[in-house]
Design brief:
5 strands; alpha/beta; 16 helices; five-stranded mixed β-sheet; globular
């Protein structure tokens, strides 16, 4: 789908009730069109200096798509092909992240990595880190940010120092449509969140005050997340103003998996199927999670575990300034 087709689709009048009479196949086909249009619009928004549309058009289309996906069986939604969850941060994003944490010029890091044909993540070992960071984690009802809902967000701040403790912790539950009272909260086998915790809460997309609060936090300092492209993809399609701030360089995501893979020498020699860069396994190696404990899979708990594990790894390598 090209940009003109995507704009035409996004601006077309939608009649979702008509689709319901044609069965799940028709709903799934419409979701596929919506998601292809979202992908084309997002790419154009970031590629063009002055796009001909505002990002609210993308957010509205994603909202429409969620409304449709709510009509389908949860398992079917997860089986559908998705196109709007990024597989990882771009090279430019990784370099910008390292530059922010180390207070070094982007050009210097590019020279050390891309120009010398070295993996970008290796630059994490090239200099010390300092400053304040935000650790954040979300729990969702789907793998796909254009179909599901953010139901829990947890974040806290930490100074990059060997003796630092996380502070200003926040944890918020967000609601989901009433249909899930009967259907059950999707992916509860992972996050253990039930209707009792989200029932009666405003969905994030209907809570502009919470969106603004999260946006302010993310703009304040580089934000760390384990598999940050997941949070980045979800924030992009759920938080008003995030795309504009991201494009302007006001928001800098940092993937802590890259920190693990670059600095943790044990991870470099463990087999792939041992998942050495998984937060739970990394935390056990650094002693921030006991051998008999498991990762909680709840926003604030995981954000706290991640920050403490990063602190121990960086301190072990002597990379705090």
């Amino acid at each position: 789908m090209n940009i003109d087709q995507a704009l035409e689709h996004a601006n077309a009048f939608a009649f979702p009730d008509l689709l319901l009479g044609f069965g799940d196949e028709a709903i799934e086909a419409e979701c596929a069109k919506n998601e292809e249009a979202i992908k084309a619009l997002v790419e154009a928004f970031f590629a063009q200096e002055n796009p001909s549309f505002g990002f609210d058009l993308v957010l509205d289309l994603a909202d429409r798509n969620r409304d449709l996906a709510d009509q389908l069986d949860t398992d079917r939604v997860e089986r559908m092909r998705g196109v709007n969850l990024a597989r990882g941060l771009s090279d430019a994003d990784q370099i910008r992240a390292i530059s922010k944490l180390q207070r070094r010029r982007v050009e210097t890091i590019e020279k050390e990595t891309i120009q010398r044909r070295q993996p970008i993540a290796t630059a994490y070992a090239g200099a010390g880190m300092r400053g304040t960071v935000v650790g954040i984690d979300i729990e969702t009802t789907s793998r796909h940010p254009d179909r599901g809902y953010i139901i829990n967000v947890g974040w806290e701040l930490m100074e990059l120092a060997a003796d630092a403790e996380p502070y200003d912790a926040q944890s918020v539950f967000c609601g989901i449509p009433e249909v899930y009272r009967e259907k059950g909260v999707p992916l509860t086998h992972i996050h253990q969140i039930t209707w009792d915790e989200v029932g009666g809460q405003l969905p994030l997309r209907q809570n502009p005050a919470l969106q603004a609060q999260i946006l302010k936090v993310l703009e304040s300092h580089p934000y760390l997340a384990h598999n940050a492209s997941f949070e980045d993809s979800w924030f992009l399609l759920n938080i008003k103003g995030y795309a504009e701030a991201r494009k302007a360089g006001k928001i800098v995501p940092v993937d802590t998996r890259d920190i693990c893979r670059s600095l943790d020498r044990e991870a470099q020699f463990l087999p792939f199927d041992a998942k050495p860069a998984a937060l739970e396994n990394w935390a056990r190696r650094r002693g921030t999670l006991a051998p008999d404990q498991k990762e909680r899979h709840l926003g604030l708990d995981d954000a706290d575990l991640m920050l403490r594990t990063v602190r121990e790894e960086v301190a072990l390598r002597g990379l705090f300034k």
